[in-house]
Amino acid sequence: MFRLLLVQVLIALALGAELQKRIKVESKSIFSLVEYTNFHKYPHHASLQYDGVYVCGASIISDIAVLTAAQCTLTHTILSVRYATSFYNAGGELLKVSRIFQHPQYNPNTYDNDISVLTLSSRMSRLTIAKPIRLVNTKAVEENREGHVTGWGHKEALHILTARKAKEIDRARCHDYYVRANKTLTESMVCFSDPAQNPCQGDEGSALVVDGQQVGILSWGYSCDKYYWPVVYTDVLYHRAFIKQYAYV
């Protein structure tokens, strides 16, 4: 018994050392650029899953509805939402999605109107620790807003929730970047950028929060490694009528 316990301890120590080594290596390129966090700090954040596999980020907007990007629901119709946890594949509560309201004018080529409202099979029971995010209701002066976007992304090898700062880039400047890549910005989009590290694939659908209100849904960008390129978000204010129609918030 003691020998078995000793072996288990040695294995745990070895794994811990390897994990620390891995973190040190990764931090040079990725982990030093983001803030490890937990859902208590961003209690609105949720994980959208298909058959137990993480698909996208999402945000809680009521006790029975979440908000995500339409690209996350385009090919996946049987979905679940995990919330009240810092891990996308463990903990919290897992609820089935009962209905998907994808924007009827969503364009998968341009990502215009990249938004879906999902209603759940039952009401969330852990809203004492998880909380819906308030949605922006009034137009703000563009360029000066600063906020955070949370997510796991495909590069977060430890699968722990992270947060990144985001500063708004005016539309004209953002357009100048993407016209070179033959991409078009529309009225339903806003641009933000992190001077250190942009969000990554797998973060789509996550909420961009400014002053406690969700102003955007992470939609698309050039590359998570090209941190000097702005990231494009679906403008929540532009779609307030659509959200209210299906989520009543």
Descriptive report:
With 249 residues, this protein is α+β, with helices and mostly antiparallel strands. Strand 2 and strand 3 form a beta hairpin. The protein starts with a helix and ends with a helix.
Helix content range of the residues, please?
Answer: 10-25%
Can you tell me the residue ranges where pLDDT is under 50 for at least 5 consecutive residues?
1-33
Distance between the termini: 58 Å
- Average pLDDT for all residues: 81
- Biggest sheet features: 6 strands, antiparallel, barrel
Secondary-structure element series: HEEEEEEEEEEHEEEEH
Number of strands: 14
How much of the sequence lies in strands comes to 25-35%
- Side by side, the strands of the main sheet go 9-10-11-14-13-12
Tally of separate helices: 3
Which geometry do the CA atoms define?
A: globular
Compute the CA-based radius of gyration. 19 Å
Features:
alpha+beta; 14 strands; single chain; 249 residues; 17% helix; serine-type endopeptidase activity; hydrolase; protease; globular; six-stranded antiparallel barrel; disordered N terminus; six-stranded antiparallel beta barrel
Question: Could you provide a short overview of the structure?
Answer:
Pfam families: Trypsin (PF00089). Keywords: Disulfide bond, Hydrolase, Protease, Serine protease, Signal. With 249 residues, the chain is α+β, with helices and mostly antiparallel strands.
